[in-house]
Amino acid sequence: MSKQWDFRLQPFMKTCPWTVLSTIFACTAATNALRNGNGTDAAPLNVCISDWRPMVACDGLSSPDAFTGYQPQLFRQVVANMGMKPSTYNFTCMNWDDMIADLLDPDGSCDLSAAGVEVSVQNLELGLKFSVPTYKTGLSILVAAQYVTGGTFAFMNAFDKSVWIAIGVTGVSIAMILWLLERLNKLQDPEMREFDCTTFDEMMWRNIGTLVTHEEYYVSGATRIIEFAYAFLIVVMVSLYTANTTVQVTAVHFKGSIQSIADLPGKVVGTWTNYMDILKKYNIKAIGLPWDNDADQQALFDTLRSGEIHALILDSPVLEYTQSQQCDIHVVGQEFNTFNLALAFPPNTPVATIVRFSFSLVELQQDGGLMDDLQSKYINNPYSPCNVGGGGGDTLPLQFSQVAGLWYILAASVGAACLYMLVFFVLDKLDQRWRLVRGMGKRIHELLPENLVRAHSELIEAGRTPSLSRARPIQQIKLRKPSEKRRKIYPAGYNDGKPTTAVVHQATKVAFKESGGSEDAWSVEAGPDLATRLLAIRDMSQRLLAAVNAELQSVDHGSPGEDLY
Asked: Which Pfam families has this protein been placed in (predicted)?
């Protein structure tokens, strides 16, 4: 800041060095006299200000001592640096136009203005005099906020698609590696593990479980090393996901058609009356609105909210401060048409007085970060209730619609699980029937029901029929027909020198019927009659099997095979 003002004074020093030096000596003498209490001005200075927050806040405040804002606080520091006491000046709060008119009036009551008056050609032509700038600002665009919250799958926005793909691929890859290593470890010491993981899907399930919990699944050193690194990756990813999801789901995001000054031509734009000519060079036909006090300022914002105008252009500090306090409006685009604010003096003010205030301002700029601290406190307020764009949004409670995707995923998982169970139920039933027909690969003499060749005393003592009670009626058993080739090679009812399953079932059916049993019900209650029937079934089956074997011995059909057909 100090170098900037030195650079600006250099041309003036080259052209009028003696004028500048004489002015400096005069203002230094006046300042020293004022600091020593020898000043001749006995009446307190009347410092006029006008409310336009955050620069000046005075409307509604009972005492001038309570007047605050960036400009009044900076003025207090300036006069304190000059050695002036608070009793040597008074603040007067008034409308902006009245303040400017009073400064221009030779009989006005205002000795100066500390409201941050724009150093503009128009004000200079009116005759106002200014100190060095107190603040550099510009114009900004304010629009009514249109905010959108996260959608149904907002929780998925925490990570990019590539990250989700990497997580899925990593989970499958790690599961495969761990499965292979554990199976290799089983060959070395199968008794180390609590239970044996023999399938890849089981290892996949355990690996996915690592995402939400941890349990000692793995025993070998190799798998433990990999699992430790994978668990660390999961912990980090879960932490990042939690933090990002909180922002993605609870924050609201600005959305609008006006994003910069380039979008304003053709739109209905409102601004302060004094800024209408400035906006014409940007091809913006703005509507002039009054801005003399805090009530007018609030009316400007209400006009924007009502939709009468699409955008509002005012001083950047005002708009930045307002959007940090009122979350339904938002500043868009970059600051443009920058200008300076300064202390304003009446036309008849001695140059020495203006220079005295200017020197005090420059000293404050050089000696420390006072002006930066004031800007942070009054303009760039970090304690904003809004959270978008430095204070242009709102933090809303989490709504079900924003996380409904989780329930959709859960419902899809339930459906997938039911489908999984149904498919494996059907496959299991088909497998049972196939095993019944195929006989588990046994030879024909092993195909007879186990109860038909076991001792009847065992069945009677047990009081039950272990196999017959679970058997199906004969009518429900479907047998595969032999191929044409096999029917030509082997006689009906025979296969590779052995009776087919149909022969055995038919023998069982006949024996069971002759013993008094029903074809539609294989299971009967235990009792003396059951024992008698079981003995008859066993004897009949054995006689039939002996007859079949005797017949086979007389006919050579080739060497016996393992298959039934």
From this structure: Lig_chan (PF00060)
Q: What is the mean pLDDT of residues 41-54?
A: 87
| pLDDT tens-digit map of 334-393 | 999 999 999 999 999 999 999 999 999 999 988 768 888 898 888 876 566 665 443 344
List the structure tokens of 321.
């401060």
- Greater confidence (506 vs 339) lies with 339
d(CA 151, CA 70): 41
The secondary structure of residue 47, as a DSSP letter, is E
The vertex-151 CA angle with 148 and 153, nearest 5°, equals 155
Close Cβ partners of 279 (under 8 Å, ≥ 6 residues apart): 269, 271, 285, 286, 313
Instruction: Output the six-digit token pair for 409.
Output: 């995923």
pTM above 0.90, yes or no: no
Specify the number of domains making up the chain: 5
Residues 9 and 132 in one domain: yes
Kindly list the distances between the CA atom of residue 277 and the CA atoms of 24, 283, 284, 397, in Å, as whole numbers in the listed order. Answer: 38, 10, 9, 44
Statement to judge: residues 413 and 528 lie in one domain: no
Q: Is residue 147 part of a domain?
A: no
Does residue 510 belong to any structural domain of this protein? yes
Higher per-residue pLDDT: 363 or 257: 363
Are residues 343 and 332 both part of a single domain? no
Query: In the sheet that 286-289 helps form, which strands lie side by side, from edge to edge?
Result: 89-93, 45-49, 112-118, 329-345, 129-144, 311-315, 269-272, 286-289
Highest mean pLDDT among 14-18, 192-196, 241-245, 457-461: 241-245
Smallest CA-to-CA distance from 55 within 40, 67, 38, 37 is with 67
CB of 329 closer than 8 Å to CB of 322: yes
Return d(Cα 6, Cα 281) in angstroms, integer: 32
H or E stretch including 334?
strand 329-345
What's the rounded mean pLDDT across residues 548-561?
A: 49
Q: How many CA atoms lie within 13 A of 119 on its CB side?
A: 15
| Residue 337 phi, psi dihedral angles, 5° rounding | 50, 60
Asked whether residue 224 falls in the same domain as residue 173, the answer is yes
